[in-house]
Amino acid sequence: MPVELTPSQALGLWHTVSLEQVRVDGRDLTLRQMAILLQIYLVPPPHTVRGLAATLGVTKPVITRALDTMGALGLVDRVRDDRDRRNVVIKRTVDGALYLEKFGDLIIDQGRKQPK
Amino acid sequence: MPVELTPSQALGLWHTVSLEQVRVDGRDLTLRQMAILLQIYLVPPPHTVRGLAATLGVTKPVITRALDTMGALGLVDRVRDDRDRRNVVIKRTVDGALYLEKFGDLIIDQGRKQPK
DNA sequence: TTCAAAAGAAACGCTTGCGTAACGGTCCGT
DNA sequence: ACGGACCGTTACGCAAGCGTTTCTTTTGAA
Question: TM segments (chains A, B) (predicted)?
């Protein structure tokens, strides 16, 4: 059961969610960081720097830096892979799950407010 | 007729749209810039720096800088208000309308792809 | 055992956004 | 006509992200 949106609803939803997120959340993650965060939490693990870089279509340092930032915020965690110690496995955190849960609620709330 | 979303659909939609936007669009507007852009195009004019700052809950220089950036990209335009020459009225552009139209299409497309 | 390849991080210089504070132009009541 | 209030911009020092390049560790095959 897909989500059917009119053009007005689509942009209106993005508008009100962005607006509310700007007003409420001081963190102001970039679009890239948000895409990485959602990828980590919505797609089955394991996640690696290399894999995320390929999925996003960006270079590896972009992922490393984003993980630095979001790690400092407690939204993700990094653990060395013992199978292949060159790899780093990105782990979810309770804070990260909570953050996205609240963000999901925001989207749902704003979706309900879209007219037409 | 509001938009009813499950938690999975809400985050999934944001996920796939962000991902596609990162892959396709090199501009990478910040969340603030996107919120400003949508405010300008979805809410009836006139728009001023002061008004946008109040709506977004940010300071005026934030708006000025965002307008600098998006102006250079051709997404918005600025015109002095002849009624009160202290004011600057923010104008929409053809390029900006086109940009948001494509973005809206992206949201609609990704919405259709959300399961459940 | 040796060595090229791979993964992630760190280093480099640059660009862009931030918050605060100060500034120049404009309006309007006195 | 003067002075305060208002509007948007600019200046300043700082923090964070970017792309490219280099480095370190680890792996696996010759």
Answer: none
Interface contact A31-B12, CB threshold 8 A: no
- Domain assignment present for residue A1? The answer is no
**CATH number of domain containing A20:** 1.10.10.10
Bases of strand C lying below 7 A from some protein CB:
6-11, 16-21, 24-28
Interface test with B, best of A19, A29, A43 (most B CBs within 10 A): A19
pLDDT tens column, B58-105:
999 999 999 999 999 999 999 999 999 999 999 999 999 999 999 999
**Which pLDDT score, from 0 to 100, does residue B1 have?**
67
Tell me whether residue A2 is in a domain: no
Q: How many structural domains does chain A have?
A: 1
In 3D space, the residue among B109, B17, B6 whose CA is nearest the CA of residue A107 turns out to be: B6
- The secondary structure of B74-99 as a DSSP string is TSEEEEE-SSSTT-EEEEE-HHHHHH
Asked if residue B2 is part of any domain, the answer here is no
Instruction: Give which of A21, A19, A28, A20 is closest to A69, Cα–Cα.
Output: A28
